[in-house]
Each structure stands twice: as structure tokens, then as C-alpha cells.
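Re: [ENG-882] Designed sequences occasionally contain unexpected residues at chain ends

Forwarding the minimal case from QA. C-alpha cells:
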């Protein structure tokens, strides 16, 4: 069918035509936003799950909901190579200017600008990567101790008070949260906790890979009271089908039940793959309805495209020993797998391969489910490894 009208959107962070199966999370987040702006207690939300399940697009949807509710939103993707304060400062600056709206700065907003100035100057030496120019004087004694936790607490309080003065709330939204080192994460959480106790209108929504749960465990004990951890996974059959059917319907096209069943079976309901199969089924079908035969031909095209993009970008960043470790895991099946089993498959001792495993965790390729258990962060990655290296030998 006409590729110009193809509605599907495979791609990291590409907003899908139909955000299927996430109504409950959205509702929960909206309740938290409404409570926050009304000055009531609410828990922030951390979306966690594998790559390609739709965490980024969901987080963006929550940001849009917040903006509709008069929140200023501080959105950032946690940088792999910069400090959290360095990433936060320019976003906070932009947020404060949004609050200012060209008007004269009133008492609390002025306090917020000055706290930001103090914060950036006090932490400049510790974090060499902070760059911020701001035409305000620093506020003596606020956010200027040089201690990240207490300065961040001062700063976020000041920003939230500035927002409240304008009847607004503040949403901090952080994607790829697993890249924030645990010290900075602890400081952020402790700071949010302090601000939350004052009932100021500020909330944290975040998203990241499952390994962030481990980072959180080491953060302060009140994390669970402050944040609700929400797993984001594959879609059930009804939601997966509506992710395919609804966009087609808008363009007056449809699927046969057999085509839908086949796509669900091949994709296992993973959102990224649904978009990929939808796209190719559409392009390969002569006319509506899309049949099982179209979906079958789409499988080949979709896998080829995933192999060249989604899977490939991750694979290309790896060393030979890391690729071999992943291939050994794949040999054992979808997983998760015990480290001892992988080491045995790899053909070396656990201690010899432990650094390879750690480096794969740091690169976000695998994560540790529990002590000594390892799983892929990308769904269906084991099948990809087998396509790239059809046979596995330990040399
Ligand atoms: N609920 C959903 N329904 C349909 N498609 C979705 C849904 N969530 C995500 N997608 C699609 O899946 C792909 C991956 O989404 P993304 O948010 O980048 O995943 P993640 O951040 O978890 O890696 C995108 O192509 C997006 O359009
Ligand atoms: Mg993402």
C-alpha cells in the first residue's frame, strides 16, 4: 500500500500513532500531577523496562500531560559523560525564564534565579563541566555550600516556590536514569525528599533500564515512599492489536485476524517490533486488508531492518570478548542466565569473565537481575546474536 500514508513509527523515541496499553500508567501519573499542583502529597514515578518497550514515548506523554496542567517541565536525558548538575543547570534556567514570561521577576522567582546562580558557582569547581551565564546576583547562604545534596535541595525548593508564586508546578523528567551515577542520584532523591516535605509543587518522573533498581537500592531508604517503580513491558494481545489496527483504521485500512495473530506471535507484543512489523506489512500489502501472507513477508523485511539498525547500533560498540560473552548467553536461550553457566559456555572461569560482564552492564547491554543472574536489555537479542554468529564454538 502507499508508503506515503504509512502511519507506523519504528525508531527510538518516535511517538507512535497509537500509544496502546498505557492508560493505567497515564492515569496514575495524572493523579500525581493533579495532587502535586493542589499542594498535596504525591509520589513520583519511575518507569523501568527493556529497550524498545516505549519508556521514552510514555515519559514524553507524561511531560505533555504536565504541561497541559500548568507545570513547567525540566526534561533531560541523563548524559553518559556529563554530571547531573551540569545537565540540570541549563534546563532549570530555561524553565525559570518560561515562568518569568517576559514579566518583571517577583520575590520568589527572583529567589529561584539567585539560587541557581549560587548553585552553579558553588559547584563549578567540583563539577568542572557546569556552564551557565545568568544575569542575577547569587544569594548568600542559599545553595552555595558546595555539598550537592543540600545545595540541590535549596535550589529545587527555590524553583518550586518560584513556580508556586505563578500558580505553576515543576516536573523534573529524566530519561535514561540508569546513566546517573549513584552518588548524584542519591543527592537528587534526598533533595526531592526535602522539598516534598514542604508540600511544594514539584514532582519527579523518570525512565530507564531495569538495572536502575539496583542503583536505587543503594540510595536512601525512603526512596520507596518518594517514588513508585512501575515496570513497562510488552503489550498484551488486545493492546498490541490496537497498536496495529487503530492507525490503519485512520487510513481506512485493516488486518485479517490471521495477520494480527502472526504479528503478535513474531513480535511477542514488544512495541518497537510492532511498529516495525506494521510498517513493513503495510508497505508489502497490495491492498487492504493486510493478510497473514503480507505479514509473513514483512517478517523478513522487519528483521533485516532491525538487524541493520536497532540491534546493530548496540552490537557495533562492543569488543570481541563482549560479543563472545553475549553469544555464549544466546546459546543458553532467552535468559536470564546464571553467571556460572555463561562462563562455562564461554569456556573460562567466572572470575576471568567477570570484567567482561561488568563492562556489558556499564554499556547497558545486559543487566543483573539478582546477584549472579544476567539478562539482555534488548528483547529478542539472543535471536539476533544467533543470526550474526550462526555457530558458536569456544574457539
Ligand atoms: N504503547 C505503545 N504502543 C505502540 N507503539 C509504541 C508504544 N510505546 C512505544 N512504541 C513504539 O516503540 C518504539 C520504541 O519506543 P521508545 O519510547 O523509544 O522505547 P524505550 O525508550 O523503552 O527504548 C517506538 O517506535 C515507538 O513508536
Ligand atoms: Mg528510551
Amino acid at each position: 500500500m502507499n508508503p506515503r500514508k504509512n502511519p507506523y513509527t519504528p525508531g527510538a523515541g518516535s511517538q507512535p500513532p497509537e500509544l496502546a496499553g498505557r492508560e493505567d500508567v497515564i492515569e496514575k501519573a495524572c493523579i500525581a500531577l493533579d495532587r502535586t499542583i493542589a499542594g498535596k502529597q504525591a509520589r513520583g514515578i519511575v518507569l523501568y523496562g527493556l529497550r524498545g518497550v516505549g519508556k521514552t514515548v510514555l515519559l514524553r506523554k507524561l511531560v505533555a500531560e504536565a504541561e497541559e496542567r500548568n507545570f513547567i517541565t525540566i526534561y533531560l536525558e541523563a548524559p553518559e559523560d556529563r554530571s547531573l548538575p551540569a545537565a540540570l543547570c541549563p534546563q532549570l534556567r530555561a524553565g525559570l525564564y518560561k515562568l518569568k514570561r517576559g514579566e518583571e521577576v517577583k520575590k520568589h522567582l527572583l529567589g529561584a534565579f539567585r539560587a541557581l546562580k549560587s548553585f552553579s558557582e558553588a559547584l563549578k569547581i567540583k563539577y568542572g563541566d557546569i556552564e551557565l551565564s545568568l544575569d542575577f546576583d547569587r544569594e548568600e547562604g542559599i545553595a552555595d555550600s558546595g555539598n550537592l545534596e543540600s545545595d540541590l535541595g535549596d535550589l529545587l525548593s527555590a524553583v518550586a516556590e518560584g513556580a508556586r508564586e505563578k500558580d505553576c508546578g515543576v516536573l523534573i523528567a529524566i530519561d535514561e536514569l540508569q546513566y546517573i551515577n549513584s552518588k548524584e542520584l542519591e543527592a537528587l532523591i534526598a533533595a526531592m525528599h526535602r522539598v516534598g516535605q514542604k508540600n511544594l509543587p514539584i514532582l519527579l518522573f523518570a525512565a530507564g533500564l531495569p538495572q536502575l533498581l539496583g542503583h536505587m537500592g543503594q540510595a536512601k531508604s525512603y526512596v520507596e515512599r518518594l517514588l513508585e517503580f512501575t515496570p513497562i513491558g510488552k503489550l498484551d494481545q488486545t493492546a498490541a492489536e490496537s497498536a496495529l489496527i487503530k492507525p490503519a483504521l485512520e487510513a481506512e485500512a485493516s488486518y485479517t485476524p490471521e495477520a494480527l495473530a502472526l504479528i503478535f506471535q513474531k513480535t511477542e507484543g514488544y512495541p518497537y517490533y510492532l511498529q516495525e512489523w506494521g510498517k513493513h506489512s503495510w508497505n508489502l500489502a497490495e491492498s487492504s486488508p493486510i493478510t497473514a501472507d503480507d505479514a509473513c513477508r514483512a517478517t523478513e523485511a522487519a528483521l533485516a531492518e532491525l538487524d541493520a539498525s536497532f540491534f546493530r547500533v548496540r552490537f557495533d560498540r562492543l569488543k570481541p570478548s563482549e560479543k563472545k560473552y553475549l553469544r555464549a548467553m544466546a546459546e543458553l536461550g532467552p535468559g536470564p542466565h546464571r553467571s556460572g553457566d555463561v562462563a562455562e559456555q564461554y569456556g573460562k572461569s567466572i572470575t576471568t569473565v567477570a570484567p567482561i560482564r561488568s563492562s556489558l552492564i556499564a554499556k547497558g547491554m545486559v543487566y543483573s537481575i539478582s546477584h549472579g543472574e544476567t539478562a539482555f536489555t534488548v528483547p529478542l537479542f539472543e535471536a539476533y546474536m544467533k543470526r550474526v554468529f550462526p555457530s558458536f564454538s569456544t574457539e
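QA comment: On inspection the terminal residues look reasonable. The chain is about 55% helix and 10% strand. Proposing we downgrade this to a documentation issue.
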